[in-house]
Amino acid sequence: MRLTFHLPGEQNIIFKDDDDLEEIVEEEEEKCTIFLAWMEANKKLEAGQTLTYGEFPNQFVYDRVSREWHPCKRGYSIGRLNYVPPGTCDIYYMRILLAVQRGCTTYEYIRTVNGIIYSNFQDACYSMGLLCDDREFIVAINEVAELASGHQLRKLFAILLISNSNSNPERVWNATWTLLANGILYERRKALKNQRLNMTHDELKNLCFIEIDEKILNSNARSLKDYQLMPYPEMSDVRLFQNKLIEKDLAYDTNELTHTNLYTKQKMTHEKRTTHSRFSIPITITDESTCNIKHDNLKAELLIQSSLIIWDEAPMLNKMCFEALDRTLRDLMSVTDQHKTHKPFGGKVVVLGGDFRQILPVIPKGSRHDILASVINSSHLWSFCKVLKLHTNMRLLMFSSDQDEGEMKRFANWILDVGNGNIVSIVGDESEVEIPNDLLITTTDDHLVDFAYPNCCKTCQITGIEKKYLSSNTICQADENEDVQQEWFTPEFLNDIMFETTQSQVDFEDRSRCNATLKHRPNFGFMQRDKINS
Fold first, then answer.
1. What are the distances in angstroms from CA 4 to CA 37, 237, 504, 528?
2. Which residue from 54, 342, 383, 475 has the highest number of Cβ atoms inside 10 Å of its Cβ?
């Protein structure tokens, strides 16, 4: 007979989706599980007071209708306690005690040894000699410390936690923490460039806990919170340097900002985050949806520490995405300040960028009214927004000649007039407008190729040895190490490769569409495939 057991108030409750929760709780409080019925039977049946929980079915049978144990009239059953893994802590130690304790009537009785009521089941197991004292692990860490680094010792300690080898991991930690924290002070001095930096024992322990938890246990889907007796690090100011998400966002070198800004557009193409990945917004969203971010999550800590959120192309997203983030931020920020529950986005400053003259949210099979109703300006959050307009066209500042600037200015003004509906549309169809002749490409030959490569014919006349380079910024898919090389050779790296050679011929090939032959000049880099295709 399979015997179930549970901690106080943690019995399983089965109910249907349409059941009333209050009625369910009231009914379950009156019902007894097979485990609670066993303790009640020990109060009434003297014969059962000499038996353990596993031995009880030998002389008694459980009536599932009345939820009571009764003496067997014929035959017997063999009891078997459900298996519980060691990592479950309290219920695991309670199972050990249930195998030896007899006639238990309450949970306190299970924890009672020689008349002493222990505060938890693990201490009761220790007092009865049912657990080892973990001396072997303490000795092992001290031996390994003579050859291994502090990081390797922390990894060893994490392995002991993951494998549930320690019966009392807190004791092992207290005996070896000075060895486990070895090297942390050196790493912090090196990171902060401050050789005079000193830390207290509590700060060293805290940093050691953070490294074990976030860098080792989290990668194995574990956390220090899974081990009830282990202390958990205090996420104070030091969290800013140890939270992987915050550390990644703050990990920049001010000396390289000038160089980085030259590739802003290129880097944004590959490194910008979508709102669904950054805020964990559900793909299928409703009016009551929230972001999938828990309070103890690293992403939650990142949002709490953030002072500004910039959300580009906001008019293209459904208003329910913004409302989901609003509900989530109100909930997260309420931990630090209850008043922020009533503030939009939890009191965070959110900058929404975009233009309502561009593409609005796509509503499958939706009418014009449905599309307009899904835009952010139809949300209740719009009343808290302050509209700021840009008046300077930054693209005009990129041109050196007045003629180019004038042409771009006329084109920009015409685009704005189209968006504002100031251009006269073609009769019968308001979605079609007439494009001025000076903006049209009148030739039908290779006008775009001539514009992109004006000296193509001249470079073909340069003499020299011909060399061929594939004009692609991607890794060859036929390579067996494609996945690894995708991480090593990023598009930014490939685009930055420059050739320091004499004049020679380069034949840029695109096997899918066309071949373009160019003469190679010094410092001529790879061209992206989309440029060749054009």
1. 11, 45, 81, 65
2. 475
Shared-domain flag, residues 121 and 189: no
Is residue 375 a contact partner of residue 438, using CB atoms and an 8 Å limit? no
Q: Domain range for residue 334? A: 254-384
**Considering its fold, how many domains does the chain have in total?**
5
Residue 503 binned pLDDT confidence (cut-offs 50, 70, 90): very low
Long-range contacts of 222-228, Cβ-Cβ distance < 8 Å, separation of 24 or more: 222/161, 222/162, 225/296, 226/87, 227/87, 227/89, 227/161, 227/169, 228/89, 228/90
Name the residue type at position 235. M
pLDDT tens per residue, range 90-133: 888 899 999 999 989 999 999 999 889 988 888 888 888 887 77
For 64, other C-beta atoms within 10 Å of its C-beta total 8
Report yes or no on 53 lying in a domain.
yes
Residue 129's pLDDT is 82
Ordered strands of the 504-509 beta sheet: 466-470, 504-509, 515-520
Tens of pLDDT, residue by residue over 135-159, are 888 988 999 999 999 999 999 999 9
Q: Which domain-ending residue is among 127, 152, 183?
A: 127
What does the alpha-carbon distance between residue 276 and residue 281 come to, in Å, rounded to a whole number? 5
